[in-house]
Design a protein that fits this description.
Chain A: Belongs to the binding-protein-dependent transport system permease family. Chain A: InterPro entries: BPD_transp_1_N (IPR045621), MetI-like (IPR000515), MetI-like_sf (IPR035906). Chain A: It is a multi-pass membrane protein. Chain A: It is found in: Cell membrane. The complex is a heterodimer of chains A (306) and B (497). Chain A contains 13 helices and no strands. By secondary structure, chain A is mainly α. Chain A has a domain of 205 residues: MetI-like (MetI-like fold, Orthogonal Bundle). The termini of chain A are close together. Chain B is α+β, with helices and mostly antiparallel strands and 497 residues long. Chain B has a seven-stranded mixed β-sheet with strand order 8-9-10-1-11-19-12. In chain B, strands 14-18-13-17-15-16 form a six-stranded mixed β-sheet. In chain B, strands 4-5-7-6 form a four-stranded antiparallel β-sheet, with helices on one face. In chain B, a hairpin with a 3-residue loop joins strand 8 and strand 9. The longest helix of chain B is centred in the last third of the chain and has 18 residues. Chain B is globular, with a radius of gyration of 25 Å. The chains are: A mainly alpha (306), B alpha+beta (497). The interface between A and B is large, with 57 and 51 residues.
Chain lengths: 306, 497
């Protein structure tokens, strides 16, 4: 029962967050200026701009526009893209597979490699291997993604001609963007696994296991890693949610047709309905992932059961 | 099982070597900086680059930018407000529909219909109706004398669309699967990925030599150039000035530089405010700018300093030399205007034109040299265009006439008082601008357009800086020189060995 009310409480919190986000998304965009003037060509006269404004409903009071917006969101209708002349939701879901593919690939390699390297570093704490791994993971977090992405293109596309510079369709085209996108998460996970494992390896029950004469490998894999995983899973849930919201810079540089690129293009052209749909979707993914991680906690770690 | 096989296929895909994009000679891949969103020419909100290859207008511009017959075989003005067009016979749309007078009427009616809110309406706002005389003859009526009507019939809002198809599939579907009479037929469109076109074998000017065109959107400059140098693309547009040396140094690709193919960048002045209401102050600022220095050092010579907003290829162009750089004279003028110690003023610029921030900074310094302290602000384009006209009092803007190649487009909207983008207020200039729009006779009109430019040079309503070149890049085997009107007609591109 306690677990159930905990879950219900978290769900309610998520709902409140979504209402807050919808308010921010709506008002922040409309406070920035006049969409009608921007959507029309420079040669358009004032009369033509006004006619367009009226046709799009931009001249209604802002609270009327907000209510229309919320009503639309609840019925799954985010309005039509001003640029594409199509429902914003369609545009979003059209690009979701591309973003998901990139996010999953980036998360997979960064988790696997981060996990392995983090474990090695922890077991060999303060050794030479640990030092190398720490330097690599520090670099991965310190290098900005736009710089890394361009560097990858220049090295692997332009100079070595091993991989295409962008686009989607073949497995080769997935390599560079997922490398660029995953670098930060790889570093973060490596460092997290290392720190968390070092902490667990100092616990009493590990010392007890050692005293019982269990092999070092068995101690690390069976006893320590399981407990060291909990913070890692939390972080991964959050990373995946943020990746699904679109990798803005990576998608732009590698001409990847995902949600991030849609968001950037839409912001630049003041395509309100699309921007709202993307931001709400990203927030929703975040809230859901957060909720799932909380629920997973209840089962993974009995101490959290209230 | 199926999934496992798919996985294996994907892995096998990893192992196959890269195949060059242009494996066949009759294919071309063109990399663009922007994504295509829709291809309905009447409701376009973006550059018509792709649409240009699918549709035809009644009148078109040849490689020398002369207006020549296209879907219309001839045209003439019957009186001040009526133009008659004789249409080409036997032309069919890609879906087999016949091109005729009804198609012309349909095309124009759907844009001038007030309920349609067409974003392109302003381009043909003088048109009040189309009258069909017979299948091969239409009369277009204007609300007053409109000397530019044939030019208007050469631009994308008037690309002729197939009435039956548009009505059958609706506007949204038409924007995704366009059908025209042009040299290329639509094949496939995936937003943010590509648009694919194939040659129309029955094209009325003869079948195109390149069989298939793939347009790819590659927003990032380095990635776009890399795609060209690695053979993933054969032609790219919008080469960043900074990255041009990458192509110049390459053995696989050439830079295509279209002189005066870009926008004319100027500093707008809010003339109603002191001290910019004073002619001497405006002249002082004008003389304080080292245009040649800016073009040579910052823009690497990829622009031309100018003394008029009108482009050399435009009808009505008057060759006015750029104001000479003369800080001593500028200081003297400021003194005469009663500002011996200069003044402080705000200057706004954005990120949209070639190295615009660096240019704005250089100008701020040059203004500083004559004692005018500039408070500089750089805003993102999406923010910059929210307020029109910019409050300035000094603001940078680029304006173009490459779409019409007529002086009218270069001056009217930014110099006539009361126009959305104009901050100019000179009654004599207004009178001349209004007059220019009422004359149909080309010679008389040319004279007025030249008068406008002379008066602008004397009264300095804004500070014309330079006209940008258009920068493209192409693989060695692509033959295309670029066009002053910024179009990329694949029909005119040839592939050599």
């Amino acid at each position: 029962m306690k677990a159930l009310s905990f879950i219900a409480g978290r769900a309610l919190q998520g709902l409140i967050v979504m209402v807050g986000v919808s308010l921010i998304v709506f008002f922040a965009l409309f406070l920035t200026g006049d969409p009608a003037a921007l959507m029309m060509p420079p040669e358009a006269s004032r009369v033509e701009i006004e006619a367009f404004r009226h046709a799009m409903g931009f001249d209604d009071p802002i609270w009327v526009q907000y209510l229309r917006f919320v009503g639309g969101v609840l019925t799954g209708e985010f309005g039509r893209s001003l640029r594409f002349q199509r429902p914003a939701v369609d545009l979003l879901f059209e690009r979701l597979p591309a973003t998901a593919l990139l996010a999953i690939t980036a998360l997979l390699w960064s988790s696997l490699l981060g996990f392995v390297l983090g474990t090695i570093a922890a077991v060999r704490q303060n050794g030479a291997i640990d030092f190398v791994i720490r330097v690599i993971s520090l670099l991965g977090q310190a290098i900005p993604v736009f710089w890394l992405a361009l560097l990858l293109i220049i090295v692997f596309s332009l100079n070595l001609r091993w991989l295409p510079s962008g686009g989607i369709g073949t497995a080769q085209q997935l390599v560079l963007p997922s490398l660029a996108l995953g670098a930060y998460y790889f570093s973060a996970i490596t460092r997290l696994v290392r720190a968390s494992l070092i902490e667990v390896l100092g616990e009493n029950y590990i010392r007890t296991a050692r005293a019982k004469g269990i092999s070092n490998f068995r101690i690390v894999v069976h006893h320590a890693l399981r407990n060291a995983l909990i913070p890692v899973i939390t972080v991964q849930g959050m990373y995946f949610a943020s990746l699904l919201g679109g990798a803005l810079i990576t998608e732009i540089i590698f001409a990847w047709p995902g949600i991030g690129r849609l968001a950037v293009d839409s912001i630049q052209t003041k395509d309100f309905p699309v921007v709202q749909a993307v931001v709400l979707f990203a927030a929703f993914t975040f809230v859901v992932m957060n909720f799932l991680v909380d629920v997973a906690y209840v089962f993974l770690n009995p101490r959290i059961r209230l | 099982m199926k999934h496992i096989r798919a996985l294996f296929l994907a892995i096998a895909g990893l192992l196959t070597p890269l195949s060059p994009a242009a494996a066949q000679e009759s294919e071309i891949t063109i990399g663009r900086a922007v994504s295509t969103t829709a291809m309905d020419p009447g409701f376009l909100r973006e550059a018509a680059t792709i649409v240009d290859n699918i549709f035809d207008t009644l009148v078109m511009r040849d490689e020398d930018m002369k207006l020549v017959p296209a879907l219309a075989e001839s045209w003439k003005a019957l009186d001040d407000t009526t133009w008659e067009f004789k249409l080409r016979k036997g032309v069919k749309f890609h879906n087999g529909e016949d091109f005729d007078a009804e198609a012309v009427k349909f095309t124009i009616d759907r844009i001038i219909d007030p309920a349609a809110n067409a974003p392109t309406l302003s381009y043909i706002r003088t048109v009040i109706g189309v009258e069909v005389l017979d299948a091969q003859t239409v009369r277009i009526k204007t609300d007053g004398p409109d000397p530019l009507l044939p030019t208007r019939m050469s631009r994308y809002p008037t690309y002729i669309v197939p009435p039956k198809y548009v009505e059958e599939v609706g506007r949204d579907e038409f924007a995704r699967k366009p059908v025209g009479t042009g040299p290329y037929e639509f094949v496939d469109f995936i937003p943010d990925q590509h648009v694919i076109l194939k040659a129309n074998p029955d094209y009325w000017r003869g079948a195109p030599s390149i069989g298939k065109v793939t347009w790819r959107a590659i927003p990032e400059g380095t990635a776009r150039i890399t795609a060209l140098l690695t053979g993933e693309a054969d032609f790219i547009e919008s080469v960043p000035v900074d990255l041009a040396p990458l192509i110049e140094d390459s053995a696989d690709a050439d830079l295509v530089l279209v002189k005066n193919g870009g926008l004319t960048v100027y500093l707008g002045l809010v003339m109603t405010q002191a001290p910019l209401d004073d002619l001497k102050v405006r002249q002082a600022l004008d003389a304080a700018i080292d245009r040649k220095g800016i073009v040579d050092n910052i823009l690497r010579g990829m622009a031309t300093p100018k003394g008029t907003q009108v482009g050399p290829a435009d009808f009505g162009y008057l060759d006015i030399p750029p104001t000479p750089y003369d800080p001593a004279r500028a200081k003297q003028l400021l003194k005469e205007a009663g500002h011996p110690d200069g003044f402080s003023i705000k200057m706004e610029s954005t990120r949209r034109y070639m190295k615009d921030s660096e240019v704005a900074q250089a100008i701020a310094q040059q203004f500083g040299d004559i004692g005018v302290k500039v408070d500089q602000e750089v805003l993102d384009w999406s923010v910059y265009t929210q307020e029109v006209p910019r409050p300035g009092p000094i603001y940078m803007l680029g304006w173009g006439s490459t779409q019409t190649l007529d002086a009218d487009a270069a001056v009217y909207a930014i110099m006539r008082s009361g126009e959305p983008y104009s901050t100019v207020d000179i009654p004599e200039l207004d009178a001349l601008l209004d007059e220019s729009r009422k004359i149909v006779d080309p010679e008389a009109r040319k004279k007025v357009l030249e008068e406008i430019q002379k008066l602008a040079a004397e009264t300095v309503p804004l500070l014309t800086l330079y006209q940008e070149d258009a920068l493209y890049a192409k693989a060695r085997n692509v033959a295309f020189a670029g066009r002053p009107d910024a179009r990329i007609p694949v029909y005119d591109i040839k592939l050599t060995r």
